[in-house]
Automatic annotation (TrEMBL):
Keyword tags: Amino-acid biosynthesis, Hydrolase, Magnesium, Metal-binding, Serine biosynthesis
UniProt source species: Qipengyuania citrea
Entry superkingdom: Bacteria
Family matches, as Gene3D superfamilies: HAD superfamily/HAD-like (3.40.50.1000)
Record has Metal-binding as a keyword: yes
Primary gene name: serB
Sequence similarity: Belongs to the HAD-like hydrolase superfamily. SerB family.
Documented EC number(s): 3.1.3.3
Record-given protein name: Phosphoserine phosphatase
GO molecular function, one term: hydrolase activity
Database matches in Pfam families: HAD
Length: 298
């Protein structure tokens, strides 16, 4: 079976739905049911007894545009585990690029970051190269960067808090750095953080990492470790935007690419192209009346 949910522009939605259903039928993917969710009135759901998810996504994109979308091979339910990338996913910036600006190297570092996120460069080598360029930068620049440059994506706190209120465990796993990820995770409400550590000596960056590289394999291993602790049948949501997010996106039940690079988007069974992360809550059928702004246990 296939279940597709998308956040639809209501203008002419019935006409476009009818055309999409006819296109699905012509592709030997008949739609058993299609209509708006009762509890999220801007979310359209289609149920198909069988079909190909990628082909269905292409048809829906043809008739509904580049909308926010999730396609599943089972009934969609609120996940019990949420594993997310940080840079350009939970926050709107790439931390290392912004930090490099304090050393006058933003353009050079950002060009390497972009190629790594597109999958054109080995992530570990690209990371070590960028960190090496920051040798000698005052550690205090990190605190200034956090205060002056780094901002969460709209809806990030609400997404995390609402999922936690539904019993979902939340993990921030990044190829970035604990210097940034720890305060960001605390601010957004994540329960665990996995990332890289910048080497510091005498109040300055050494240009080296302290410890092993946190990369795509680390993200996947973290997801699998956390899923195993929850037990069989626990549904997992993963979000990210770059090539190093692909393994965890593919491994998740719901792999959602957030305003992502093409390779990450192609690997995902969900996508968010709008800015606001609460679109994910809508796709899971969580009505706005149940959204939580800040989670407080107990």
């Amino acid at each position: 079976m296939l279940i597709a949910r998308l956040i639809a522009d209501m203008d002419g939605v019935e006409t476009r739905l009818d055309a999409a259903m006819k296109a699905c039928a012509a592709a030997d993917m008949p739609v058993a049911m299609g209509g708006m969710l009762d509890f999220c009135s801007d979310v359209l759901q289609l149920s198909l007894p069988h079909g190909d998810g990628r082909q269905l996504a292409e048809i829906l994109t043809e008739y509904f545009g580049d909308c926010d979308l999730l396609i599943s091979d089972h009934e969609i339910e609120v996940p019990r585990l949420f594993v997310s990338d940080m840079d350009s996913t939970m926050i709107g910036q790439e931390c290392i690029d912004e930090l490099a600006d304090f050393a006058g190297l933003k353009d050079k570092v950002a060009a390497i970051t972009e190629r790594a996120m597109q999958g054109e460069l080995d992530f570990g080598s690209a990371l070590k190269e960028r960190v090496g360029l920051l040798e000698g930068l005052e550690e205090s620049a990190i605190h200034r960067c956090l205060a002056e440059r780094i901002r969460p994506v709209d809806g990030a706190r609400t997404l995390v808090a609402t999922l936690r209120s539904k019993g979902c465990r939340t993990v921030l796993v990044t190829g970035g750095f604990h210097h940034f990820a720890d305060p960001i995770a605390e601010d957004l409400g994540f329960e665990r953080v996995v990332g890289n550590r910048l080497g510091v000596a005498g109040g300055k960056l050494t240009g080296l990492l302290a410890g092993p590289v946190s990369d795509a394999s680390t993200k996947l291993a973290t997801l699998e470790e956390e899923r195993a602790q929850l037990g069989e049948g626990a549904r997992v949501l993963a979000t990210g935007d770059g090539a190093n997010d692909i393994p965890m996106i593919e491994a998740a039940d719901y792999g959602i690419a957030y305003r992502a690079k093409p390779r990450a988007r192609d690997a995902a069974n969900g996508r968010i192209n709008s800015v606001h992360l609460t679109a994910i809550l809508r796709l899971f059928g969580i009505p706005e009346s149940e959204w939580v702004e800040d989670f407080a246990a107990g």
